[in-house]
Amino acid sequence: MSSTVLQIGNTAADTVGLPRQATLVGNSNQNAVKILRAITAAGRDAHRDFEWAQLKREHTFATDASSSYAMPTYYDRMILGTAWDRTQYRPLVGPLSSSKWQEYESGAIGVTGLSTLFRIYSNSDGDKVIEIYPSTDTGNTLAFEYIDSRRLISSSGDLQEDIVADTDVFVIDDEVVEAGTVWRLLRMLGLNYDDEKLEYVKLIDERRANDSGAPVLDLRLSGGSSFDPHVPSTGYGS
Fold it and tell me: Is residue 226 pLDDT above 50, yes or no?
C-alpha cells in the first residue's frame, strides 16, 4: 500500500534528523513547512522526469474540418509518437516547431502527399490546443496518448494535481518521492546530500526501467516488418 504524504514526510524526517510531525498540511512549524515543500518538489520533479504507466491516458476526438482542437482536461504533456489518424490509418507528423509550422502554413508550397501535420499551441484564452494542418475531413477519429497532470489521489479516491491533505498518496512510486524528499531536505538544512541524491538517481533509473517494461529486441533484417507474426523464434536455417 502506498505511503501517505504524512508518512513520507516523517520517514524522510527520521532519515535527516528532523522531529516527526503530527501534521504537515496547514502546519506553520518551520520543520513541517520544509518537509512539505520538499515532498511537493520531489513529487513534481518525479512526475516530470518520466512517463509513468500510472499517468498514461489516451485521448480520441472527431474532426470537424477545423484546424484547432481542445486538449483533454488534466493534460500535462503528449507522449511522442502516439498521434494517429485512425480513420486514415496514418500517423500524424509532429509536433512541429513554430518555424517549421509557419513554413508550411505561410509558404508557397505547403504540404504535399498524404501527411497531416500537428503542433501543440495556445489559443487566445491561454489554453493548450492541438492544431492540425491541413484540416482533415469531418468525422475522422484522431488519437494520441498523454500524461495526466494529476499525480496524487485523495483518501476518497479522487485524483488531484497538488497536495491537499496529509492522507493524500502519490499515484507515482512513493519510494521515489521519499528519496527525492530526503536529499532536498538535506540541501535545505545546508548538509551534504551528494550520496542521497546519487541513491535517488539510481532508484529512479531502476523504477523507470521496470515501470512499463521494454520491447523485445528485434534481430530480424531491417527490411522485415515489425508486425510480421510468421517469423519463427527458433529453427532459423533448418
Answer: no
The C-alpha cell that represents 104 in the structure block: 508550411
pLDDT of residue 134: 81
Claim: this prediction has a pTM higher than 0.70: yes
Phi, psi of 223 (to 5 degrees): -80, -15
Which residue is it, cell 526501467? 209
**How far is Cα 51 from Cα 220, in angstroms, rounded to an integer?**
28
Q: Tell me the C-alpha distance between 208 and 14, whole Å.
A: 26
Q: How many helices (H) and strands (E) does the chain have?
A: 5, 11
Question: Residue 205 and residue 202: Cα distance in Å, rounded?
Answer: 5
Domain boundaries of the chain, sorted by first residue: 5-52+172-211, 53-148
Q: What CA–CA distance (Å, rounded) separates 164 from 215?
A: 38
Phi, psi for residue 67 in degrees, rounded to 5: -110, -5
Report whether the peptide linkage leading into residue 72 is cis, meaning its omega lies within 30 degrees of zero.
no
